[in-house]
Amino acid sequence: QVHVAESGGGLVQPGGSLRLSCAASGFTFNSYFMSWYRQAPGKERELVAGITNHGSSTNYADSVKGRFTISRDNAKNTVYLQMSSLKPEDTAVYYCNAHKERLGVVFGDHWGQGTQVTVSS
Predict the structure, then answer these.
(1) To the nearest whole percent, how much of the chain has pLDDT over 90?
(2) Strand partners, 59
(3) pLDDT tens digits for range 1-27
(4) From the CB of residue 96, how many other CB atoms can be counted at a distance below 10 Å?
(5) Are strands 115-119 and 10-12 parallel, antiparallel or unpaired?
(6) By CB atoms within 10 Å of each CB, which of 13, 15, 56, 65 scores lowest?
(7) Contact predicate 94/24, CB 8 Å
């Protein structure tokens, strides 16, 4: 049974830091591209950061470059999002996604339930 679970969200002051974790099970974690998305109230879900299956390559939204770092530990089936210099506009529900696709065929697409991050003084 596939399970994806985010943790680590909370309330933080502007300029502060948080580390989100996403633990996965029920699929071959090291064959999946992992991403973090976020959705703020009244806005569409947006991609924040992604990392290839063995961690050799990452990508970031322009709005978080230089402040957020995505990483993964395949031995623990876990992906992380280290967030620093947080801004009020980073407030959102953060979701973890696991995606496997080859030649246009999707073999798996799994989402967690999300974790709330609120940046406020």
Answers:
(1) 100
(2) 50
(3) 999 999 999 999 999 999 999 999 999
(4) 27
(5) parallel
(6) 56
(7) no
